[in-house]
Each structure stands twice: as structure tokens, then as C-alpha cells.
Amino acid sequence: NAGVMQNPRHLVRRRGQEARLRCSPMKGHSHVYWYRQLPEEGLKFMVYLQKENIIDESGMPKERFSAEFPKEGPSILRIQQVVRGDSAAYFCASSLQPGRHGYTFGSGTRLTVV
Amino acid sequence: QQQVKQSPQSLIVQKGGISIINCAYENTAFDYFPWYQQFPGKGPALLIAIRPDVSEKKEGRFTISFNKSAKQFSLHIMDSQPGDSATYFCAASMNNDKIIFGKGTRLHILP
User: Is B99 in the A-facing interface, judged by CB distances under 8 Å?
Assistant: First the structure.
């Protein structure tokens, strides 16, 4: 029973390029959450998706960031025209039901913008 | 605005000692308070969780103490071991909504 799978584990992008991060939730989980972790900043919520729907994107920057969770395939977090400040660890979590029963996190994608 | 405030930022404890991490919250609508443990290079993993209708929950060496009137809760790790060295996050959520995390406590247990 595979856990939450994130890939790539490490991603290096030059300023101005696009970064695409993928997250496959646990089998049977239809709720996906993306978080960003910066040193000394903890985990900051970005977006909550269910299949084909964005439920809460209150933590997403207004520009350059987008997320999707299609009917088939993994959830994708896309960052366009990356800047140095986008360098961080991005974690995806999934749950069977929203909120109260806790999440299962993936091991994250560490994005470095050079 | 930080909804869950965690302290200390880092903590060093002797092997066999008690590690205590504290959290405070403002929003009384929160109804679920989990703690997560994160090892370097890994994602956070759910350690233990509590709801506001109980004052204490214990699982093995890990105990959550919850003070609803003070809007505070804490994690106690008894008989701390070097393998407990990790970053710990307190968190909160409400109404089946997203989980909001504190900034984390980096715990180091001296062998």
C-alpha cells in the first residue's frame, strides 16, 4: 500500500523557467493539500483540491502559481517563471476525509532556483 | 497572522529526560489538534492528536495536555531517546477544514 508519492524529489530550475511538481495521493484518497516549507517558517498551506475541483486556494500566491487534480493522474503544482524566493520544500498530503483525521504527507519536492 | 504559536524554536534534552513543547491558539473554533513529527528529508508524519473535549491523551511515551480555557496545548515526550530527535509541529483545524501548522520545534536528544 504505497503512501503519498511525490516527484521529483529534487528539482533545480533557472530563474524564469517553469517548475512542475507532481503528487499521487494514497489509494482511495480524494483530498489533496499542498504546503510549502521554508527554513524556520513551518508548513504554510497553499491549496486544497478534490478531484477536478479547487476547494481552497487561499494560500496560493496570486500570480505564477496554479494547481490541478485531474480525474485521472496525479495532482500538479505548477510554478511559472520561477524566482529565487520560490526555493523551498513543497509537500503534498492526502486524506480519505477532509481535515479531522489528519493527513498523510509525501516526502516532498525540494525546489532550488538558481 | 500566525494562528498557532509554537515554542520553543529549538530544544535540547538529555537522554531519559522529558521533552516539552508548547503551543497556543487564538481561534476557539478549532476542534482538532494534531502533532506531527518530521525527520530530515522526510515529510511530516502524524504522531498524536486530541480534540478539545478531553484534557489529556497518552500514546506510549507521548502525551498531549490540553487546556481549553487557556487556549494552550503541549506535547510531552517521556524518557526521551536519541531517535526522538526530529522537528515537531503542533497544528489545528476546524470543521473538517485544512490543517494549520505552527513553525516547528527542532528537538535534539543528547545520547
Answer: yes
Comparing CB atoms, the residue among A6, A43, A106 nearest residue B89 is A43
- A100: chain B residues, CB-CB within 8 Å: 31-32, 93, 96
Q: Which chain A residues have a beta carbon less than 8 Å from that of B6?
A: 42
For A23-44, write each residue's pLDDT tens digit: 999 998 889 999 999 877 889 9
Per-residue pLDDT of chain B (111 residues; tens, 9 = 90+): 568 999 999 999 999 999 999 999 999 999 999 999 999 999 999 999 999 999 999 999 999 999 999 999 999 999 999 999 999 999 999 877 889 999 999 999 999
**Angle at CA B12, nearest 5°, toward B8 and B14?**
140
Distance CA A42, CA A19 (A): 22
d(CA A107, CA B43): 4
Nearest to A91 by CA among B84, B47, B99, B5: B99
Q: Does an H or E element contain A89, and which?
A: strand A88-95
> In terms of CA atoms, which chain A residue is nearest residue B40?
A107
